[in-house]
Amino acid sequence: MTIRKDHEVHKRRGKTNMTLGIVLGAFVLLVFAITISKMVGEAQRVQSENATTQAE
Amino acid sequence: MTNQSYDAEFGDFFALLKPRVMSLVVFTAAVGLLVAPVSMNPVLAFSAVLFIALGAGASGALNMWWDADIDQIMKRTQGRPIPSGRVTPSNALIMGLWLSVLAVGMLGLTSNWVAAGLLAFTIFFYAVVYSMWLKRSTPQNIVIGGAAGAFPPMVGWAAATGGVSVESVLMFSLIFMWTPPHFWSLALFMNHDYSAAGVPMMTVTHGKPYTRKQILIYTILLAPVTLALAFTSIGGPVYFAAAVILSVGFLRGAWGLFQRSEDVATSDDYRAERGVFKFSLLYLFTLFFALLIEAALRGLNLTWGAWPVWI
């Protein structure tokens, strides 16, 4: 049973809001992926630096 | 359409980003990034290209906000979101400004601030220097405004390397010198629109025969830039072969346009002019694709050691 009726504006803009929601969600995922990539890259850099120092 | 009840849809806002221009930016920026001698994490490379494209889109929205009055007059642009009433001018302005900030900030965080600075300058150049200042005041608008379109590969290169080099300057110069003959050949058969809107296109202010001469001059100046790239660290025999063939083709086309009179051009409905315009698109696409092939060959260690790298 519906408790609340959607306002007319929500229906009218439903599709646009849904698309915008998906785009924002994708942006969040992208920022997360960037963060992981940068952390992995940084870890690799530190590791190779340590390896060079030890070799010396 | 002054329909009060119309709500802008997502697609209307997307159209403000000039998706067709953006696809060219994606391509040239991606090439600039991929041919750089630095291997990049694929997620970071993808993000960098995405943010460069977003910045270009933002400048497109700012351009459409500023140019709404002339877009309304020209047939080619009447259907754009603002002149057709689907998006309000202030919404376009707000979107353009915030997407610019987002694109520059995110590119700085993902890649580096040299690339972000170049992107910010590109947006400024297109929205302020070209749209607001030059487009309506001088027939050189296309020449100087072309710089905005020439920046993306340089930004891509900077995203990968963190700097500017002779290779990225030459990629910039290639698009910069290519833009005038590309646009003027279009203007030769789109003249009516520009004169009605009062945009000082060279065809309107100096006439078509003069424009034909300028197309030829720029095509001649373009050839050495195109060939020079072959002898940098990102060039090679594949690119060189493409550069020679395409340069000859472009020069022949420009020479053909130079020799045509307006009577002949009108009688066959600007067939040669349309041909040169299409060829110019093929020219740019193929050259950048050839740079990509050279990069792939280097990646596979299939380089020819004797190839001269002079620059």
Notes on the structure:
The complex is a heterodimer of chains A (56) and B (311). With 56 residues, chain A is an all-alpha fold. Chain A is built from two helices and no strands. Chain A starts with 7 loop residues before the first helix and ends with a helix. Chain B has two domains: 9-163, Tetracycline Repressor, domain 2, CATH 1.10.357; 165-311. Chain B has helices spanning 10-15, 19-34, 42-66, 68-73, 89-110, 113-134, 141-161, 166-197, 202-205, 208-228, 237-259, 262-267, 271-299. The interface between A and B is medium-sized, with 14 and 11 residues.
Which runs of chain A of at least 5 residues are low in confidence (pLDDT < 50)?
none
- Distance between the amino and carboxyl termini of chain A: 74 Å
The shape of chain B, in one word, is: flat
C-alpha-based Rg of chain B, rounded = 20 Å
For the terminal residues of chain B, how far apart are their CA atoms? 56 Å
Largest sheet report of chain B: none
Approximate helicity band of chain B: over 70%
CATH H level, superfamily name of the largest domain in chain B: UbiA prenyltransferase
Number of strands of chain A: 0
Characteristic key phrases:
heterodimer, A: 56 residues, mainly alpha, 0% strand, rod-shaped, B: 311 residues, Tetracycline Repressor, domain 2, 2 domains
